[in-house]
Write a sequence for this structure.
């Protein structure tokens, strides 16, 4: 499911047995400096726009008949021109979510995958341009629970309130990003017994900001 809540460029590349959709922001004001928060002293630098496409992350999702990791990396390479500081993928493999992430260039992620391959014919990928949380591996996308993996472009304005609420309910967070509230929130709704579509829809209603997922 790709959700757009901003003006996005949609890229669709279709081939035999594969449908790929990449979403990313076009000339939007998403990457404004972040507010320091939660003991994380890191603050995003001012965006350095290099032409129209500087400083924007990239999102890709693939459902295929065969393994998707190579295609995900290839898709992310096509989005490299936007600029990014880290990258990651998640695949669905035998009902389990596999996540591989790396700070820096896609070659670092490719090296991770060479050392620890991720199988699966369904996957998502992301090149991150950090707004909240330093450009580390722990803050790279996808952010995932055992049941939900999310890649996110943009900013969740009300993530502090949502994070506080989820921590109060016993959720443990593994990153400093605004993004991580999304899979944790969807995960809570799944725990409450909602089906995946309703869990996502209910979580979306709680999110404020400008973003694509
Ligand atoms: N705000 C998110 C983060 O800092 C997403 C940034 C992006 O659009 O790449 O991880």
């Amino acid at each position: 499911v790709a959700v757009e809540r901003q003006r996005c460029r949609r890229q669709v590349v279709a081939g035999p047995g594969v449908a790929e959709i990449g979403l990313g922001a076009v000339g939007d004001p998403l990457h404004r400096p972040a507010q320091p928060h939660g003991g994380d002293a890191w603050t995003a630098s001012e965006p350095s726009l290099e032409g129209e496409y500087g400083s924007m992350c990239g999102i890709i999702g693939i459902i295929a008949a065969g393994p998707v990791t190579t295609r995900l990396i290839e898709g992310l390479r096509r989005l490299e021109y936007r600029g990014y500081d880290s990258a990651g993928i998640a695949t669905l493999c035998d009902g389990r979510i596999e996540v591989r992430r790396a700070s820096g260039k896609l070659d670092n992620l490719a090296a991770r995958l060479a050392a620890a391959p991720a199988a699966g014919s369904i996957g998502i990928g992301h090149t991150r341009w950090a707004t909240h949380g330093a450009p580390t591996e722990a803050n790279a996308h996808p952010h995932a629970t055992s049941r939900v993996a999310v890649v996110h472009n943009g900013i969740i304005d009300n993530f502090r309130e949502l994070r506080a609420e989820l921590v109060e309910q016993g959720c443990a967070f593994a990153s400093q990003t605004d993004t991580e509230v999304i899979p944790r929130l969807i995960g809570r709704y799944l725990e409450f017994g909602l089906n995946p579509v309703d869990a996502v829809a209910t979580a979306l209603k709680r999110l404020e900001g400008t973003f694509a997922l």
